[in-house]
Amino acid sequence: MNYENYDPSFPDQPVVDLYLPLWANLPSFRSKPAFIWAEDGSNGATKNSTITYAQLNESVHSISTQLLTQLQRGDTVVILRSPGFELVEIIFGCQRAGLLCIPVFPPDPSFTKENYHHLVRVLSQTKPKAAITHHDYIARVQRYISLSSDNHKLAEMLQKLTWISTSDIKDKKVSSNMGSLPYNSCRPNELYLIQYTSGATGIPKPVLVTAGAAAHNVRVARKAYDLYPSSVIVSWLPQYHDCGLQFLLLTIISGATSVLTSPGAFVNRPGLWLELISKF
Q1: Do residues 211 and 228 touch, judged by C-beta distance below 8 A?
Q2: Exposure check for the chain: N or C terminus, fewer CB within 10 A?
Q3: Which residues form the AMP-dependent synthetase/ligase domain (predicted)?
């Protein structure tokens, strides 16, 4: 296989998820931060939390195992989570489970603020089997379904979904004997992501991305940016945005560390981004 590898010590992998156990099993990388989440406080001070390569790999393994108790490989799922570690873990967990995922910003579950049109578009066009979200969000959606008399189409689409709580797939521990298990994740030629365009110049359109194409894209970016394991990335872009998601993949294939914050924090205080660049 001919990839864009520039370091023969670390052979390129056909899909991004295969890089994760590679780094996590190296002694010098186990405790290295893969992602740092910077939460901006009301007084301007940031509170940082960290997930290491070993922790991320273990969480992804657990999530993928739990997902496959309710879904089958190749199923389509919509992820309704705000930016954060949990969304990062679930995106990688879906790839390891061999699922086709669609990350979408969750509209207010009261669906009264005319902010649900994109969700309707996603559900109509992709016809996912399940939705993954927080248990409180599920409870509010179920309440909307039971009381809805205004939008029967939306209520019907929501009712057809299998709702999976993030706590059910994250909080249950499974055997971590990953080394002896065959790798059955997305293959390079298989779809693993439906990415919607931003909608800045027109109605958002679904783009079908194979696992191999995503890996190729970030390998080219890794070479262009000259990224190495010692590199640090700082981003406020949401993880369902094309660049925001690619920075997650780029971090993993480079063995780098990515410092993330929410788009809302950046919009409220743009100087936060520059502060994080200076700090890290």
Answers
A1: no
A2: N
A3: 29-279
Find how far residue 257's CA is from the centre of its chain: 16
Handedness of CA 96, 99, 102, 104 (dihedral sign): negative
pLDDT category, 198, cuts 50, 70, 90?
confident
Q: How far is CA 132 from the centre of its chain?
A: 12
Work out whether strand 100-104 and strand 76-80 pair parallel, antiparallel, or are unpaired. Answer: parallel
Q: 16-39+56-279: what fold?
A: Rossmann fold (3.40.50)
Q: What is the pLDDT of residues 233-249, one digit of tens each?
A: 999 998 888 889 999 99
Domain residue extents for the chain: 16-39+56-279
| CA pseudo-torsion sign 194, 199, 200, 201 | positive
Helix or strand run (H / E) with residue 39: strand 33-40
> The dihedral of CA 131, 201, 259, 207: what is its sign?
positive
What DSSP string describes 73-127? TT-EEEEE--SSHHHHHHHHHHHHHT-EEEEEPPPPTT--SS--HHHHHHHHHH-
- The DSSP secondary-structure symbol of 181 reads S
The residues pairing with 39 across neighbouring beta strands, listed in sequence order, are 47
The H or E element that residue 219 is part of is helix 211-225
Gap between the Cα atoms of 11 and 6, Å rounded: 9
